[in-house]
Amino acid sequence: MALFDRKDNKNDTDNISYLISALGSKDWKLRQEAAVGLAQAGKPALIPLLKSLDSDNAMIRSGAAEVLGAYGEIALPTLLKLIVTGKENVRDGAARAIGQNGETALKPLEEALKNKNYKSRRGAALALGYLGYLGPNITGLLVGALEDQNDEVRLQAAKSLENINWKPANRHQAALYYYATDDTDSLAKSGRDAIHILKSGISTGNTARKRKIAQVLSKINEEESLILLVKLLEDEQPEVRQAAAEALGNAGDRRVWQFLVKALDDHISYVRVEAAWSLDRTGWKPSDNDQKAKYLMTKERWAELVQMREAALPVLISSLKDDDNSIRLKSTEVLRAMGNVGYAAINEALKSDDPKLKRAAAHAVAHIKQKNAEAHSQKPKDRPKSPEDEIEEQIKRQKASMAKRDSKSEEFWAAILRKNNVNEERVLRLSKALSDENEIIRSAAVENLKSLGSAGTECILHLLADKKNNVKIAAIEALGDLKVKKAAPYILKLSGDKNENIRMACAHSLGQIKEPKTIPGLIKLFSDNHTGVRKEASHSISEIGSITLPFVKKAFDEADITVRITAIDAVSGIRDPVSISLTVRMLNDSEYDVRISAIKALTNFSEYLFNPLMDEALRVSIRGNFMEKTGMISALSEIEDLRAKEAIAAFASDQDNKIKSLALSAIKSTQETEDPGLHKKLVIQKQEIKEEISEIDRIISGLKSDDNTVQMKAAEQVFMMGNEIIEPLIASLDENNPSFQNIVAEILIGLGDPAIKGLIKALKTGSTAVKIIAAQNLGKIPEDETINALCDVLYSETNPEVRIVAAESLGFTGDKRAVDALIFASADENTKVRASAIRSLGYSGDKKAIPTLIKAFEEDDTYIAKTATDSLKNIGSDATDALVNAIKSGDGAYKLKIAHALDAMAWVPETEEAITYYLIAKRNWNEIERIGTPAIAPLSELTDDSDIDTRLGAVNAIAKIGGTEAIPPLSAAISDISVMVRKKAECALIEIGDPAVPYLEEIVASTNDPTKRTFAMNLIRKIKS
Description:
Elements: H1 13-22, H2 28-41, H3 46-52, H4 58-70, H5 76-85, H6 88-99, H7 106-113, H8 118-128, H9 136-145, H10 151-163, H11 171-180, H12 184-189, H13 192-204, H14 207-217, H15 223-232, H16 238-251, H17 257-263, H18 269-281, H19 289-298, H20 302-308, H21 313-319, H22 325-337, H23 340-350, H24 355-376, H25 387-402, H26 410-419, H27 424-434, H28 439-451, H29 457-463, H30 469-481, H31 488-494, H32 500-513, H33 519-524, H34 531-544, H35 549-555, H36 561-571, H37 577-585, H38 592-605, H39 610-623, H40 626-637, H41 642-649, H42 657-668, H43 676-703, H44 708-721, H45 726-732, H46 738-750, H47 753-765, H48 768-778, H49 784-796, H50 800-813, H51 819-825, H52 831-844, H53 850-855, H54 862-875, H55 877-886, H56 892-904, H57 912-922, H58 925-931, H59 936-940, H60 948-961, H61 967-972, H62 979-992, H63 997-1006, H64 1010-1024
């Protein structure tokens, strides 16, 4: 007999209440007895049991469900209603009870799955999860429910399938499950299997669902995913369009540009902003002025819009109708900043047939009048800035940076002089003179400025831009007299002026300043069409000295005869023995005038390089060619010193009769009686030198041999000969024979200190090839002398190829004495030099190098960043700590490189703060959100970042994390100058609700910013409403 037919079961209400209460007991025996008692109680217990399904005690709910299940078909209609209309706990309890009815419950649940009411379908899916024991039929019904159009039904079906330990039979079922559970990462990995499901969701889903679909589509590399995203970009809901724009940017496909560009016209500002960011991420550049103007407006780059002038007017005028008041105001400000161009465009808009544009133009006129009136009145100093003030200031700063300073302003000059601590009396006198219209007075003022020393140089530098040549020349000469190094690049630039007097002054002053970087510019003046300019440039090269010789040597090879003659003139004034050998080379020139200039130069050397000249004459007499010998005899014959005549005597025994005759004629022309003893002495000396030179040539020839035996024997003879062979060996390094060069370099190192000193000298005066070989091999000798020599190369060598090798050699030594020089070279103008220095700093392992290596990440060059990363890896844990600290500051690109460096160093974050800063650098906002509350403090630091994308990303992440800790940074963002950032912060605070009100009320009470106060008051009203 059914329980409900029992007439003798008349337990009172109190007993039933007690039994239901006992279902929650921790004593399982008591629970069991209570369940039996309630089952026997029959119909009177039904209503209390149904009510108990909503109990706060899970054990009571579970026990009640079991008892109700025992009631069978009589309770089933009521239970089926409860899974539709009941609260969550009631629905679950009713479903459990239905689950005990077995196949009896199956048919009504199948009917419920077809019901138009989604709650019926959701309840059926819930109950089926407790009927899994009936086999595949239940699984099929639930898998079918995964395709329901309602999110809640699909989710419940997925949960029920989990409840019965279901596993997807294929990729399509798996995709349905991921879609139902919002597992977007797994769904994206399903690829094409997900597309059909997502397509259906676009047609039937709500706003939240469509936003999630957009996120998934961006991760699926299929053609159809792009088509669907474009469709979402046209959705009626702006939140969906924003998500689609973001997703298209993440997809990184250039084919979507046209659709994103179209989105720049969206009537909702944050959709436009998202489209602009996505265009940035895909490398898009505007193809016309209209696109550029829309993009700049969306990115709030108002100053650049001002520079576009007429080209930006159509977009600016159209934006006067924008739904966002701040956009309208800022567009008006840009038009105002354009002056007459902007005013004319607004006047045209006033005549428009479009009533909305006409009204907007009228509002713009009123706003401009108000702003102009304020500009003419005295504003309070402490007046807080409004968003339109921000744009006005931005435009002013841009204009100021572009505007040329008025050098005629007395106040301008006075401000500079006072900044340099010039006494007030002089300030008044000089500022008046410098601003005088009379160029003579301004020129005279330069002399007074020069008397001030360093305090006057800033004013003199500004005078280089004076419109009058006389003033410029006075300034150039003064800066030369004062030897102002920082003036060198400006003077060098002026050396190209069309006025020859300015060019002459520049050439002269550069010789006084002696800045090595100006040497190529001075050499360039050797071809000037004005003799005075060439003469000054030549003199300046001589003044700068030996470091110019490599540049002059190149000038000897120029096709222009004028350049070669001027170069000879320059080298004749350089007091370095190398100058003599370079000049002898020019005795072979094809042009007579060049050879004559070389002879004159050799004669001039006798005044200050007499002994080296005599040595070179003796060398030429033995090893010189016909042209060199005749030229040297001619030069020597012009020298009055008797020793020069003795040197000519060395040519008198030459095998060439013409040379012998020329030498004898030169000797006779002096009308001096030749000393026979001296002549005999010279002949013997010449023969000894010949023999020695012949032996050296034979040894060097042996070193070049391909026969190892000959090579080894020659090397032994080098060590037997001693120091005499060092200089010829170093000179032989200039040959383009790498194998021979390496052998010679190794031998020189083995010869010890004299050879090392020779290499150091070659490092300063040799050809580029010799310098490179010297730098390579000196790095193998980590002594003070060699380290210092290589460091000097980084400081003063003009050829970047030599600096590169020197930096690499210092790295090879791993010597910490080189760290300062390598740090200096890390800022070299040549990228390869910087890279070599940065790499070598890593080899040093010195902690002192860490700041320099981290600073290298500020460069745009990816190779430099990779090299710096490798060097930091060599230094180890100290570098890791510094990187973790550095990632907290700097711009986005800099932080990202640091993050990559930390990746390369296999860094493992130890704190949530560290991982948050790392993820910020990677812009991985999703992962940051998962960290939760601890991430809010680092994110809060970004709310005043100069980059709008960074601010928005931070505010968006804080909003998603939520909680009371998110309120302060979100409250700070409500007055952000970017509309998008403000909107994000406002929406998040509204969602947080009442807990945000006290913070906003505090802003209202304490802020002096009326705009911020207004925003806060509006937010409070929205929250309370």
